[in-house]
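User: Hey, my collaborator sent me this sequence without any context and asked if I could get a structure. I don't really work with proteins. Can you help?
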Amino acid sequence: MIEFIPTSFIFFLMAGVLALFPHGLMRGVLLLITPLLAVFHIWYIGFGNFWPYDFFGFDLELMRVDRLSRIFVLVFCLASFLGNLFAWHVRDTTQQVAALLYAGSAIGAALSGDMISLFFYWEATALASVFLIWARGTEGAYHTGLRYLIVQIGSGVILIAGVCVFYQETGEVSFNKMTLESLGTWLIFISFGIKCAFPLMHNWLQDSYPAATVTGAVILSAFTTKMAIYALARGFAGTEILIYIGTIMTLFPIFFAEIENDMRRVLSYSLNNQLGFMVVAIGIGSELALNGMAGHAFAHILYKALLFMSVGAVLYRTGTAKASELGGLYRTMPLTAIFCLIGAASISAFPLLSGFVTKSLTLSSVAVEHRTIIWLALVFASAGVLSHSGIKIPFFTFFAHDSGKRPAEAPKHMLIAMAITSAFCILIGIFPATFYQILPYETNYVPYTFDHVFSQLQLLFFALLAFAILYRYGFHPAEIDATNLDTDIVYRKWMPSLLGLSIIVISKLYASMLINGSILLEYVHKSLSNSHGPKSARVIGYPSSAMVVNIIIVFALALIVIFVS
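Assistant: No problem. I've predicted the 3D structure and written it out in structure-token form, which is a compact way to encode the shape of the chain:
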């Protein structure tokens, strides 16, 4: 039977096989075949629970396939295929093996029916993905990778701590819906929040993704955060606090993305913004909202991969992804520019593209719940997305000022990967009813109503107008080569300053102790010499017999104390 092996293990086995093949065509073929085999596997076995396993008395369930987990597995497989196709030119075994292990671990996490197996997959994603950062080969990438690994492993430590406490409280390790009513569930919630890049826990994302390789950033953008989104949806759907956390997530990245110069950091902030929509939907917790969450996660992985691909192709050809050093590239990279525009329009939720039909589900679910302030905040965030990702990315990369660079068009395999991804963005937007069939819940939602299309176009065109006015009259933030800090100021500025100050203080205290200690010792030595030295009056006038008696008495008392104790 085909279910003799968990779906995730297909990736693990093929990663081992991959290492046996020399560089060449066969290795690339294996990279593309693996996710296709996984899609066939997950679709063939159908819904149900598979691979029960007894682990030191714990009843584990390595595979739980339902409509919620299946849609995430499908898009993870699709992202793996597209990412590997985009990385066809890569000849680094470490990167190729890491990409398969990373994708397999994320799929395993999405299929986990218990929190112990979830933990193992959770940590495996961290260990595999860090090599996509280190493969960059720079000192900055090495240090960034270490910070990334600490955060990701730390999330796993918090998760297993929460699972242990939860087991003590309930006697269960099954991965089902929970409530924030105990220490265990709060720890699990925080662990999910770290990988989901909650506010104040988010900067590992903007720090690490731009530091990865050209192809590594494409793969990284697909798995970790969406795995966390799935975990939140599985464990904490309908949790009120997620509505407010998600709303904040949609808003604050807008301002940082607007002033950011590095295009891959802009996309990283944009990623955080889009995650916010999904978190809000999870917080709402209705069937419509969870459909919006799953659908938007699916669409987001595709259009965000497309944007990372287009910027990555530019980085591959020019050696830079900084807006201040780019512009005018449409002349020699027209196809890449077109694909970038499709990704930008998709993330901005233009009608007839994927972002429109998936984001509409979430906005409608918020409106149905009569959460007016939240809805207005999400609408504002949608306009912000158009500004920093829909306009800024393609405009400053391919148009705007002429940088004088005339790079060759992206390699054919990159163009094919971008073309396939673009096709998915368009097809989902044109045929939403077909796409809705794979969502977690049945729905007859119709996104293309006159009111919805008209209001969305109004929002988009007003946002375009605002950008044009700001740019024309010099109010738009200038693109300058600088490092913008938000919460990473803690480890970039404050911690080094505090460490330096601590070293200075400790050094001065040590020096003072040495000086004062020597003075004190000299004083004590002189005092003892004067009072008890051989020439002191006390010693000269003190009978030796009395001294002997005193020693005997002290010794006897010491023996008594030792005996009694």
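In plain terms: Residues 489-532 form the longest helix (44 residues). You can pass these tokens on to your collaborator as they are.
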